[in-house]
Amino acid sequence: MDLPELKIGPFVAKVPIVQGGMGVGISLSTLAGNVALNGGIGVISAVEIGFNEPDYLKNKMAANLRALRTHIKRARDIAKGGVLGINVMAALNNFEEIVAEGVKQKIDIIFAGAGLPLKLPQFTMGTSTKIVPIVSSGRAAAVICKNWHKNYGIIPDAIVVEGPLAGGHLGFKEEDIKKPKFQLHNLLKDVLETIKPFEEIYKKNIPVIAAGGIFTGKDIAEFMRMGASGVQMATRFVATHECDASEEFKKAYINARQEDVQIIQSPVGMIGRAIKNEFLTDVAAGKKKPIRCLCNCLKPCNPVKAPYCIADALINAQRGNLDKGFAFAGTNVSKIDEIVSVKQLMDQLVSEAKIY
């Protein structure tokens, strides 16, 4: 199929691919800007975005806000008018401050997951910024739609529904990730059905973006035929020259085998999917890593009980110090065998989709 444009409010992506936000520091301005330049929606991860700022450990909030402004500007310079977003976890302790700064910088779209972003409209009403919650069930979509309708008189500008094959933190119980009802095609149907009453009330379409395990142009075409308006992909974009991660991080993706992809228990109280390494093996064996809570970044995290600092581990991994951290990745990471440019990847996906 010829892939259609993806429209979220007034913003139009020529290619209906959203590059998933990957923290800490995996999708920053270089990756997001180049995805937007090549027709997709580029997304900057705002999670502890200031980790490279010289005063990060002493003045975390100022460092994060300063870095967010810098990366939005850099991405805009690269994107040349393309569509840009930021990804903000609702579980962040500084969620509201980051969102407010993104709106101040007139970011096109805010994607918010890892919790229910029920207060998000407070910061965007009357502005040009569009808001897109990330959910893992029709129930979560319903809660958000009902709340926003009741309290703000609006509905989401789009919704991302993320299935259990994604990388990073997952919105599922470990025992549920292989059950048929929780697979992405069924979740997509559930969300599409759930939002119909709200679309009727507001006389407008809510684009639904399918995410989690989408790897090829064929996958994209299949989910578009099921009713998705677009897809979100993250893992594929790590193996690009423009990805903001270190070369060592990218090599972990290239070298990963299927048996290396595992479900882990994160210190934040959620499960996640990551690439097995010595760091994670030690954690699984009960070896508590030397811990310093860098930033008290996530509401569910208890530094006293945590076996390691998730922010510290992810920052180490981003910088290539994988002996002191690990790489989150989607279930299909073992299929990646080379690093390409963002343009090559986007062109390949569009070409593959045309065949199906």
Uncertain residue segments: none
SSE order: EEEHEHEHEHEHEEHEHEHHEEHHH
Please give the CATH class of the largest domain.
Answer: Alpha Beta
Number of separate structural domains: 2
Second-tier CATH architecture of the largest domain: Alpha-Beta Barrel
Using DSSP, what is the number of strands?
A: 13
Q: State Rg.
A: 19 Å
How many helices does DSSP assign? 12
- Main beta-sheet annotation: 8 strands, parallel
Distance between the termini: 6 Å
> Which descriptor suits the 3D outline?
globular
What structural class do helix, strand and pairing data support?
A: alpha/beta
User: What is the multimeric organization of the chains shown?
Assistant: single chain
Provide the β-strand percentage band: 15-25%
Mean pLDDT: 94
CATH homologous superfamily heading of the largest domain: Aldolase class I
Helix content: 25-40%
> How do the strands line up in the largest sheet?
3-11-10-8-7-6-5-4
CATH fold-level topology of the largest domain = TIM Barrel
Structural account:
The model has no long low-confidence stretch (mean pLDDT 94). Helix 2 (60-79) packs parallel to helix 3 (95-104) and helix 5 runs parallel beside helix 6 (184-202). Strand 7 (130-135), helix 5 (138-152) and strand 8 form a beta-alpha-beta unit. The protein has helices spanning 29-37, 60-79, 95-104, 121-124, 138-152, 184-202, 217-225, 235-238, 247-255, 278-284, 310-318, 342-355; strands spanning 6-8, 11-13, 17-19, 41-45, 83-89, 109-113, 130-135, 159-162, 168-170, 208-211, 230-233, 261-265, 271-275. The protein folds into two domains: 6-245 and 336-355, TIM Barrel (Alpha-Beta Barrel); 247-324, no CATH class. It has twelve helices and 13 strands. The strands form three sheets. The protein has an eight-stranded parallel beta sheet. A three-stranded antiparallel beta sheet has the order 9-13-12, with no helix packed on it. The chain has a two-stranded antiparallel ribbon with strand order 1-2. The protein is α/β, with parallel strands linked by helices and 356 residues long.
